[in-house]
Amino acid sequence: xxxxxxxxxxxxxxxxxxxxxxxxxxxxxxxxxxxxxxxxxxxxxxxxxxxxxxxxxxxxxxxxxxxxxxxxxxxxxxxxxxxxxxxxxxxxxxxxxxxxxxxxxxxxxxxxxxxxxxxxxxxxxxxxxxxxxxxxxxxxxxxxxxxxxxxxxxxxxxxxxxxxxxxxxxxxxxxxxxxxxxxxxxxxxxxxxxxxxxxxxxxxxxxxxxxxxxxxxxxxxxxxxxxxxxxxxxxxxxxxxxxxxxxxxxxxxxxxxxxxxxxxxxxxxxxxxxxxxxxxxxxxxxxxxxxxxxxxxxxxxxxxxxxxxxxxxxxxxxxxxxxxxxxxxxxxxxxxxxxxxxxxxxxxxxxxxxxxxxxxxxxxxxxxxxxxxxxxxxxxxxxxxxxxxxxxxxxxxxxxxxxxxxxxxxxxxxxxxxxxxxxxxxxxxxxxxxxxxxxxxxxxxxxxxxxxxxxxxxxxxxxxxxxxxxxxxxxxxxxxxxxxxxxxxxxxxxxxxxxxxxxxxxxxxxxxxxxxxxxxxxxxxxxxxxxxxxxxxxxxxxxxxxxxxxxxxxxxxxxxxxxxxxxxxxxxxxxxxxxxxxxxxxxxxxxxxxxxxxxxxxxxxxxxxxxxxxxxxxxxxxxxxxxxxxxxxxx
Length: 635
Ligand code: WT7
Fold this sequence. Notes:
Elements: H1 8-20, H2 22-30, E1 41-46, E2 51-56, E3 59-60, H3 62-66, H4 71-74, E4 78-83, E5 92-95, H5 96-112, E6 120-124, H6 129-141, E7 144-147, H7 154-164, E8 168-172, E9 175-177, E10 180-182, H8 184-192, E11 200-204, E12 218-220, H9 221-226, H10 230-235, E13 241-242, E14 246-252, E15 260-265, H11 266-281, E16 288-291, H12 298-310, E17 314-318, H13 329-337, E18 341-344, H14 346-355, H15 358-361, E19 370-373, H16 380-390, E20 396-399, E21 434-437, E22 449-455, E23 465-466, H17 470-478, E24 485-493, E25 499-504, E26 508-511, E27 514-517, H18 518-525, E28 531-541, E29 545-554, H19 561-575, E30 584-588, H20 601-609, H21 625-632
Parallel strand pairs: 4-17, 6-7, 6-8, 8-11, 11-12, 16-17, 16-18, 18-19, 19-20, 29-30
Antiparallel strand pairs: 1-2, 3-13, 4-5, 9-10, 14-15, 15-23, 21-22, 22-24, 24-25, 26-27, 28-29
Bound molecules: 5'-O-[(S)-butoxy(hydroxy)phosphoryl]adenosine.
5'-O-[(S)-butoxy(hydroxy)phosphoryl]adenosine (WT7) binds near residues 375 and 404.
């Protein structure tokens, strides 16, 4: 596998080479994978269209790189360790051979029902090994998977299924998560009343809750795999995929409209997740990697599944939550399985800080070597606590900045090899050329500056399109600053050229590391009878990073504010999912708008943050008096 950049000098050298001759640089790295056919051209790109093609002409199947190629040397090594939500339930281990077999079997079950290359399959499951198997089985047969996080509502599921025109769903009867038992199949049943494209539904039974099966459409996972001949299934070759064939769609929220389906393709995504996994964590063979994300998010795709498995690592998949049954659950899992790399989100760290140091102090966790953080800016307090209490002062922390759209990490320190700096993601990986621009798109040069973070050229894992709407991809990422990929984040660059990500500069919220679009939440709130208009903004929240503050114009009885707030949040839960519920709801008689009718979110943000002294000029507003009223009613 690619040699590790194990100090700043070798990183700097690789970085220069990657920019001077990207084709030679990535060609050499890609040479180490299993290809059915090698590429004709390493890179072709144009950010105007936009069009990005990596390893064009090559053919491969990513699952052969994640499974088959490890069989000769590592067939009996653990590929996947699964730890239950319930500490009393035994964990499960799949060796590479066993995982390969399970994937081949379920791939055959999919083929038996006519699922074929290019078909879209939505996956809505809890964190059980069968989720990993389902994802890889889709990839095996060339079906495009679209995993939908188990916390999304029926409405959100049907929106995604319809947008992707999925022909099949793979789900569970229910999911265990902390003290909760979530009925997934019921949600699917409700969602599918609005979807005509779905012909088949597989149901893996995890909670053994009562479910209804629609005959002709629904199949139990256990029945489906029992009907497969194992030897025959293993003998079927993996589907041959073109480098730029879509591997998956993952829906993510933006500042406007409905979630968009970010599309990643086979070859570039594989190379990028592999490269970034090994380099950022400085992965050593035999290490156990525990990424605490859900596979419903990009972090789970890239760093529970494709990155670690392509590297032949042991990946640990955890069904539960950090605090159930008590706030030492992560530490128990780390000790039980002798985890080497722990990769989690600042919001989890902050909630564990809140639970008290005694929980983590009971656990020595001598196996830990590298700690990763992802999903939102990490505050200094959380960084130091992670370093001292979890890592006992002897583990490296990597602060990895990236996005659903980037496929894998773009800016990070390399564990122990390049300097870390608390709250800084530090330096870009080879192939990544970041720059800061001002509002007008002029590049901001030099150090000790801040601006909007853009990237000048494609890396192998960049998104290729948004499903069914290429124009939206162009508008969202490539048009704000022509010729550049715009991340939507603000950043500053210190005296060493290290980057610190300061957060979104668009109307996207990051609540507990989950990405939430303001427009989506507003549309949901507006469905509540009596709501005339609403505007939501983020505000600093001790645990979630950002909380959701909703300003609502409501025509009706406002005497019982609590039940009004409850009613509004029920609609939000039903329309999007519980993750999008508002933390604070303020009823207002009007919203601050410009004369052209645009809501001045900047002002609403300041009020929600309590920064009342710096509201800026409000005299140009349509109705400046409304601002005083909103301030007076602040929650
Ligand atoms: C947004 C992307 C990346 C996978 C999980 C979230 C924020 C992500 C960091 C970090 C500061 C970060 C950014 C980014 N973000 N990592 N290390 N430091 N901010 O993926 O849902 O696509 O969200 O998460 O604001 O734009 P996502």
